[in-house]
User: Which sequence fits this backbone?
């Protein structure tokens, strides 16, 4: 099963579980017949006539269900419950779910607490909600994980992997992987490193190429994960190996003793069941990148709009002091080597680099204008 399908399955199960937990609480309140908030809703919508029915309770539930689903999914994602299940055992995941559910229920309790209503009523409702979430979310995830492991042991849904390093360390890693079929690796072959024996078959598994051919091996054999088991001679090449596969839909894992080589270069998680370390070149998962991007845009728009009078004043002063455009365009290299154009308030005379080329400006650079000197000192030239 691919990571995307795995996450979608977990997401669907979680949304179903949190909604069933809310229905469970409403059912208890409906059966009790004397829960104050349902009577309050009934008086609000029907003028207090008639008895409370479960259909009414269901309509009352439909309103907050979408918001609550979004709340719980965001909370689960924030605490890393949608990361690869290989990073934790089922027991560890159960404990993690219990912690997150407890935190989430406490937050909801404090956010919805109404001091004008009897306190015991809210406590009983939240306690029932907490218990329902533990059973339904935890049970749903346990069922999915157990079913996944059953399929993987049967050879269904395994991730295609290659082992980099066909020496003794690679052989040992292959033997360990064969002992743990529930980890879900289908080793399609080895990739030979410098100093490895020139064998074409290792432990019944083919050697598919050298490390220089790794990107092509990944593409040709539809590899999803690269397992690094390098000799001491290959250790210094690990960052280059990862960089060579940049842009390919492949992840990396390695034996623990190379962690010190790439410390600070990647984030690590201990993989359950094996002495392997999962290497994550991107420190931020997709949802964090999206949140950061949204925050960057929001702050930028707020600064540009909020400071519009100041930016207009700066533009006027630049035009009055010297001829030329208000903005200076400069080519920069951004994330993943992407080229982009950066806009700055012009702080030098027009065509300052025409004869000197792009050189670093000095403190007493005669090309810098009087206004530009102030802008540079206050870092206002880089605001656009």
Assistant:
């Amino acid at each position: 099963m691919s990571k995307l399908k795995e996450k979608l399955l977990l997401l669907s199960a979680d949304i179903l579980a949190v909604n069933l937990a809310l229905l469970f609480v409403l059912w208890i309140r409906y059966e009790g017949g004397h829960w104050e908030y349902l009577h309050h809703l009934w008086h609000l919508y029907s003028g207090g006539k008639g008895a409370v029915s479960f259909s009414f309770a269901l309509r009352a539930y439909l309103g907050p269900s979408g918001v609550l689903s979004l709340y719980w999914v965001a909370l689960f994602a924030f605490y890393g419950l949608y990361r690869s299940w290989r990073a934790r055992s089922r027991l560890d995941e159960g404990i993690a779910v219990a912690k997150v559910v407890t935190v989430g229920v406490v937050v909801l309790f404090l956010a919805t607490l109404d001091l004008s209503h009897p306190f015991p009523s809210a406590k009983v409702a939240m306690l029932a909600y907490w218990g329902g979430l533990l059973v339904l979310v935890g049970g749903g995830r346990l069922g999915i994980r157990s079913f996944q492991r059953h399929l993987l042991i049967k050879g269904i849904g395994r991730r295609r992997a290659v082992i980099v390093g066909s020496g003794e360390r690679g052989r040992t890693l292959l033997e360990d992987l064969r002992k743990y079929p529930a980890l879900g690796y289908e080793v399609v072959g080895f990739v030979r490193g410098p100093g490895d024996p020139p064998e074409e078959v290792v432990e019944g598994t083919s050697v598919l190429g050298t490390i220089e051919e790794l990107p092509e091996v990944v593409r040709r054999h539809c590899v999803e994960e690269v397992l690094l088991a390098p000799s001491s001679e290959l250790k210094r090449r690990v960052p280059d190996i990862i960089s060579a596969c940049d842009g390919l839909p492949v992840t990396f894992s390695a034996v623990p003793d190379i962690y010190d080589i790439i410390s600070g270069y990647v984030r690590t998680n201990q993989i359950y069941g094996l002495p392997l370390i999962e290497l994550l070149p991107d420190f931020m998962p997709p949802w964090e990148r999206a949140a950061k991007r949204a925050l960057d845009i929001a702050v930028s728009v707020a600064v540009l709009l909020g400071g519009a009078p100041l930016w207009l004043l700066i533009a006027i002063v630049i035009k009055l002091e010297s001829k030329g455009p208000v903005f200076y365009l400069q080519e920069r290299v951004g994330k993943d080597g992407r080229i982009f154009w950066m806009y700055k308030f012009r702080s030098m005379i027009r065509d300052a680099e025409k004869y000197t080329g792009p050189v670093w400006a000095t403190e007493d650079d005669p090309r810098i204008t009087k206004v530009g000197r102030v802008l540079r000192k206050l870092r206002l030239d880089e605001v656009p």
Summary: DSSP finds eleven helices and ten strands in the chain.
